[in-house]
């Protein structure tokens, strides 16, 4: 089962992604920039060679006005 961890490029999110990878989970790391995602992935792979990680850029709107206009 895959896990999605937001904020995985630093702090608690990074440590959560690291521990999930150590436990054998496939971990998705959505970040606001490709560079931050790649850095986080590289750091986790140094700790957990063979970790199943997926990075992607996900920049959600931060303005309440934008969030309210999202579909759904």
Keywords for this entry:
Rossmann fold; three-stranded parallel beta sheet; alpha/beta; about 45% helix; about 70 residues; globular; single chain
- In total, how many beta strands? 3
Helix content: 40-55%
Q: How many domains would you count in the coordinates? A: 1
**What is the topology, as strand order, of the major beta sheet?**
1-2-3
What does the main sheet amount to?
Answer: 3 strands, parallel
The CATH top-level class label: Alpha Beta
If you compute it from the alpha carbons, what radius of gyration comes out, rounded to the nearest whole angstrom? 13 Å
Mean pLDDT level: 85
* Number of helical stretches of at least 4 residues: 3
Oligomeric state of the chains? single chain
Shape: globular
Question: What structural category arises from helix and sheet content?
Answer: alpha/beta
Query: Could you state the order of secondary-structure elements as H and E?
Result: EHEHEH
Describe the protein's architecture and organization.
- With 72 residues, the protein is α/β, with parallel strands linked by helices.
- It has a single domain (2-68), classed as NAD(P)-binding Rossmann-like Domain (Rossmann fold).
- It contains 3 helices and 3 strands, in the order βαβαβα.
- The chain has a 3-stranded parallel β-sheet with strand order 1-2-3, with helices on one face.
- Strand 2, helix 2 and strand 3 (53-57) form a beta-alpha-beta unit.
- The longest helix has 14 residues, at 34-47.
């Amino acid at each position: 089962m895959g896990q999605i961890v937001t904020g995985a490029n630093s702090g608690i999110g990074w440590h959560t992604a690291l521990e999930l990878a150590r436990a054998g989970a496939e971990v998705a790391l959505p970040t606001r920039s490709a560079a931050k995602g790649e850095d986080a992935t590289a750091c986790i792979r140094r700790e957990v060679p063979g970790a199943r990680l997926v990075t992607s850029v996900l920049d959600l709107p931060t303005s309440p006005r934008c969030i309210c206009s999202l579909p759904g």
